[in-house]
Design a protein that fits this description.
With 384 residues, the chain is of the alpha/beta class.
């Protein structure tokens, strides 16, 4: 029997890195190993009861297809939240509700990249979230990665990109606060990148899934730049409101980008289910549950940092997101170090999972309970 043909883009992307963690997790669990899972950034904090109640109340005897443009009430609540949080006026008609942010990030290149054009470059950053790269690859774009170095505050070096490259860029992706480093972007950096996007005619796409998780100071958004032409911001309730399974986010952009998305999205999917949208309205309208979530992550961070410091593990990242970005001790590779911790029941992410620039670091996602973090601290005290 002849082998079935598989997309060359699919072959090129390989196995999604976190599939490896899930495989290791299942293997160890089957062996009876008691695990503390710091690997995947899937919040375990309970979704607020008012949000869950709105979800149930939104169910009707029959639910039709949701429109791709989303409920007006949801777009209005997102626009109000943007103004409240970032002090900027956003027109509800410049907002598109999305099925979380992952699919919208993946699909953006399908809308904006012409694989047969010279302007087919998609800039991404690494270490980083692999979905923008994979979306660009499937769209036939040319992916170029800008390394995030600690000496530059985990910001890409914009001066390292020459004008000939800028003129070929269709999309430039940034992610701040950054996964995995926890770094936040100064407003001056966002302003300069936005200026470059207008000067050279590309879209600056800003993945802002972690803007609402911080330990000290609220991070900036690309929505705050003086001129938002050629800027698109992606956000989600997944991390802010511990709603990963609900799949609810949004894109906010200028009218040209929004018009293109509204033309494209009915072809490939829709907005979230209507009952999820109605729960999302409640989530965007409330800040109290987000403050409680930040406090929970802060408490877990304070359990782990002291033992890491005592053991000489340097915290290399910033003070936002739900992650700790830590330096690998000694000369071990990040994967070897993660495998050593795995033997003791601690699942962490090696920095190499996020790209070659992540080597030398490892990531802790602060998703286990406080009790599990305390147990992990005891293990770290013993084995490091």
């Amino acid at each position: 029997m002849q082998a079935m043909q598989v997309s060359p883009a699919l072959r090129a992307t390989g196995t999604y890195p976190f599939v490896k963690l899930e495989q290791a997790k299942r293997r160890l669990a089957a062996q009876g190993v008691e695990l503390v899972d710091f690997g995947k950034g899937d919040p375990m904090e309970p979704t607020d009861p008012a949000i869950r109640a709105a979800l149930v109340a939104g169910l009707r005897e029959r639910m039709g297809y949701p429109l791709a443009e989303g409920l007006p009430e949801l777009r209005e609540s997102i626009a109000r939240w943007c103004e409240h949080r970032f002090g900027v006026a956003v027109d509800p008609d410049e907002v598109v509700p999305t099925y979380g942010s992952k699919e919208a990030i993946f699909l953006l290149a399908q809308v904006l990249v012409d694989r047969d054009s010279e302007r087919n470059v998609v800039l991404t950053t690494e270490p980083g979230y692999p979905v923008p790269d994979r979306g660009a690859t499937f769209a036939g774009g040319e992916v170029r990665q800008l390394p995030l170095r600690e000496e530059h505050g985990f910001l890409p070096d914009l001066d390292a990109v020459d004008d000939a490259v800028w003129e070929r860029v269709a999309i430039a992706w940034i992610n701040y606060p950054n996964n995995p480093t926890g770094a936040a972007a100064p407003i001056a950096f966002l302003e300069r990148f936005a200026d470059l996007s207008r000067e050279h005619g590309f879209l600056l796409a800003s993945d802002e899934a972690y803007t609402e998780l911080w330990f000290d100071t609220p991070p900036h958004s690309a929505l705050e730049v003086r001129d938002r032409g050629n800027v698109a911001v992606f956000n989600t309730l997944s991390k802010r409101s511990s709603m990963t399974g609900y799949r609810s986010g949004f894109v906010a952009a200028d009218e040209d980008v929004i018009a293109a998305l509204k033309q494209f999205r009915p072809t490939v999917g829709t907005a979230p289910q209507e009952f999820v949208q109605r729960a999302s309205v409640v989530a965007w309208n409330d800040e109290a549950h987000v403050e409680r979530t930040r406090a929970a992550y802060r408490a877990k961070r304070e359990i782990l940092l002291p033992v890491l410091e005592r053991k000489g593990i340097r915290s290399a990242g910033g003070a936002a997101t739900m992650f700790l970005w830590l330096e690998v001790p000694g000369s071990e590779s990040s994967e070897a170090f993660a495998e050593r911790l795995l033997e003791h029941g601690l699942i962490v992410s090696p920095g190499s999972f996020f790209g070659t620039a992540g080597e030398g670091y490892w990531r802790i996602a602060l998703v286990p309970t406080a009790e599990e973090c305390t147990r992990a601290a005891e293990i770290l005290e013993r084995v490091l």
